[in-house]
Amino acid sequence: MDKKLINFGVSIGQIIFMPGVAIQFFIVSLCIGQSFGTEITIIWIITSIITSTILTIATPPIPGGGLSCYTILFTQLGIPSAGIALVISIELLMDAFLTACNLAFLQTELVLSAKKLNLLDEEKLRK
């Protein structure tokens, strides 16, 4: 792969490309919302997906950075703030796993982007 693509893609990707966090935001909000008796409708699910996606971009790329976003997510979805106590225990366990997932997704996306842009030397990749 071209060094320019790697340097640009990895540095930007580690900051804003976090698909694992987006999935976690949605699933956690769904589970916590249901456990606290929040009415879950189609509009609620769409709002959760959109808010989770926006918050994924806003999440700081530091350990525990997602915790600051749950307050916004829960307020937007009408989930009681007591659910944040449950999220803290989940977030601390899942943070390392999500970091590994995000980096694996980023590397895969960079290889696919390099192939689309004809910047991938497939012979070196096969060796």
TrEMBL record:
Single annotated GO MF: symporter activity
Subcellular location field: Cell membrane
Annotated GO CC locations: plasma membrane
One of the GO BP terms on file: dicarboxylic acid transport
Record flagged with keyword rRNA-binding: no
Annotated keywords: Cell membrane, Membrane, Transmembrane, Transmembrane helix, Transport
A Pfam short name: SDF
Protein name, per record: Cation:dicarboxylase symporter family transporter
Key word Repeat present: no
InterPro entries named among the record's database cross-references: Na-dicarboxylate_symporter, Na:dicarbo_symporter_sf
Entry's transmembrane regions: 12-33, 40-62, 82-106
UniProt xrefs under SUPFAM superfamilies: Proton glutamate symport protein (SSF118215)
Membrane topology: Multi-pass membrane protein
